[in-house]
Amino acid sequence: MSRIRILPDRVANQIAAGEVVERPAAVVKELVENALDAGSTRIEVEFRHGGKSFIRVEDNGSGLAPDEALLALERHATSKIREAADLDAVRTFGFRGEALPSIASVSRFTLVSRPTSSKEGTEILINGGKMLHQRSSGCPTGTRIEVAHLFNSVPARRKFLKTDDTEAAHITRLVRLYAIAHPEVAFTLSEDGRLIFRSPACRDLRERVSEIWGRRTAEELMEFPSISDSSGQLSLSGLLGKPGQGRPTRDGLITLVNRRPVDSRTLSYAVLEAYHTYVPKGRYPPAILFLDIDPAAVDVNVHPAKREVRFRDEGHVRQFVLQSVLAQLRKLNSNGHSTAELGTRNAESKPTTTTLPNITSPKFTSTPSLPAQPSKAQTPPVSGQQATPTPSGIQTLAFRTQQSAPTTSAPPPATSNLQPATNLHFTWRFVGRWRGQVYLFETPSGLVLFNARAAHERVWFEDLQKRFASAQTPSQRLLFPQPLEFEPLASAALAAHRTWLNQQGFALEEFGRNFYRLEAVPDWLDPARAEAFLRDLAELAREHGGASLRHDDVARLAATRAVRLGDQPSEQEIRALAQRLLATAQPLTSPRGRPTFLELGAGDLFRRLGGDPDALD
User: Fold this and answer.
1) What global pTM score does this model have?
2) Which ranges of 72-137 does DSSP label H, i.e. alpha helix?
3) Among 50, 57, 54, which Cα is nearest to 29's?
4) Strand, coil or helix: 322
5) Contact 95, 103 (CB under 8 A)
6) What one-character DSSP code corresponds to residue 275?
7) pLDDT band at 506, cuts 50/70/90?
């Protein structure tokens, strides 16, 4: 058995780097936090090849004297705390004294710094934990740190890094978060010599959001004035998503504690609960919330990368955030704003008509029809040369809303790989609409409560599964290509699936960094909903960590997002939908697991009524 011994500092630093420096974005995080702690009003971040080959963070902060610069590269050397009790009053980002020596141990590390009181600065060069030189340097006030060849001295760590695009996306999102946290600080971000964004010091948070995330994102958010609790120890402010504005993932929900971006379940769940009735089910509200709290009431030292925090009184914080956000949403409702905003959004997003493959049967035959075209103000124009927007060889129904235009007769398509189940014996008798999208049928064995929306999703889900597997989906060309911009992480995930998407009827071309041009959509997708579908798909791919999506995942998303059931389907359309449902492979549930129908047996009904079936006639 080997004898116990103390590890050399170089090895200990490399082990510590495994916790502190997990990827290039972690390096940027530590250096940006140091710049903010130094009182900087201007921070520049530059990186190349996803941060693997080069990272530079430069600021105009207080700078370091030569002896302080050397001391900063020793383990657990920090100016933030002196004793354990100081952890109860930490308001700075850094306090452990681990970041710089850990980064220097796994890279070629250059530090150049000059304090305000000095006429010249100092330069320190370290390669893989070994100091090469320290010398005087002419430089402006502040600090510049360059990190090159990250993890070259630890090849085992380097091979676990993602692609350049993915690592670049993580860096971009991180810098944006710190720019949001500090609107008063000017930020500049560059990648491979190309400017990503430059934001001068801003007057307010909305202005900063508009500059780094775009005007569209800023318009989706509303001011949330500062609210404090009775004790004055908690204060909440920021921007809230307007009622009805939902996103497919929680990435748009940003929480900051004492201006530190954190992942907090306590805060996130409180916001989600407040929005419970204000966003559609399965969607998440965008929000940027700043929680100011007494440092003694929060522990920021519970995670190696300080991404998570723990509150001393979780219940009180959760209740304060929940009530504060809910009060603001109710205030908007009382002023009449949210209802109008939500109604406008629903009117814009709801397709006027969608088509559903129908089954012919001896008892009912529908008239083939095409959906009415949405107005040009709501959807990208579609050129005249387009494919028939329903599976060929199958009769189709149009689910029309009350405002939809009359449908026109469609010529029967020539071929199809989907055949109608003409041999299905349909014995349900339509009784009427119960409430919402639930309808009542009478069957030989009792009564059926039919969930039309869930059934509609199941029918489209299985139809799209077959289309995706065959990769033979017709396209409809857009008259005017539609420009799209995505978040860096979502863009990287979408780029990984672009070839497959183009095989499924899309025509999606790259049009610059994180920009795309949509030229065509599949025949099953309403062009007005194409952008929303692609954004949801990108977020879904991002959640899968860049792995290839399965056909089932995409079909489930398409069935629940891209295709909608009209508000007032006719009796014939509901009958046709029920027939089509019973022909599917799994007719009992929707793709999301919701029951499509519930059957109440006649015997059980008569027993509950307490009489003989003949006597109750």
Assistant:
1) 0.68
2) 99-104
3) 57
4) helix
5) no
6) T
7) very high
